Amino acid sequence: MFSLENVETFSQEIRKSRFHAVAGPVASEQAAREFIAAHSDSGATHNCWAWRMGQNYRFNDDGEPGGTAGKPILQAIDGQSLDGVVVLVTRWFGGILLGSGGLMRAYGGTAASCLRAAAKVELVATVDVAIGCGFSDLALVKARLSARAGVHIAGETFGAEGAELVVTLPERELQETIRMVTDITSGRAAITPPD
User: Fold this and answer.
1) DSSP 3-state assignment of 141?
2) What pLDDT does 63 receive?
3) Which domains does the chain have, with CATH numbers?
4) pTM of full prediction above 0.85
């Protein structure tokens, strides 16, 4: 899954109607609503939108025939494997009716073109792991963890015998990281995987 790095816009004219899309990353439903309110044009004929955050999604046709605007925008989001994204497509009517199929292609196509042009960032599921090790192993463990892509030492506490590290790492790297720490400490490290 991917999300957007920043806000992106795209405009096109289809049979004398002007379509303008604006897409951006959002972290909550409230943020999506604020984004839509901030980018909607009250002078436009329609401000249609869709957003997705995990299993939660919403879309709105804003007066267009049911299913001809919001749903194609959502399909453009899903078609590019995006999450945490909102897209607003604003239409200024140009006098020529597009029909249901034409509206679906216009809204979905405008949203898809906007999303294709946007810089994307991969969403990686992370987990926190507690690693306890003696002072004799600490420098090597920290060096090896820091050398792994996506691994971040989020916390460090010291005791009489050594240190406990809180390590944030990609979920898919969990077993390999546990194996690496176990190997380099000859099994001396105490590793507490996530629940």
Assistant:
1) helix
2) 94
3) 2-122 (3.30.230.30), 126-192 (3.30.70.240)
4) no
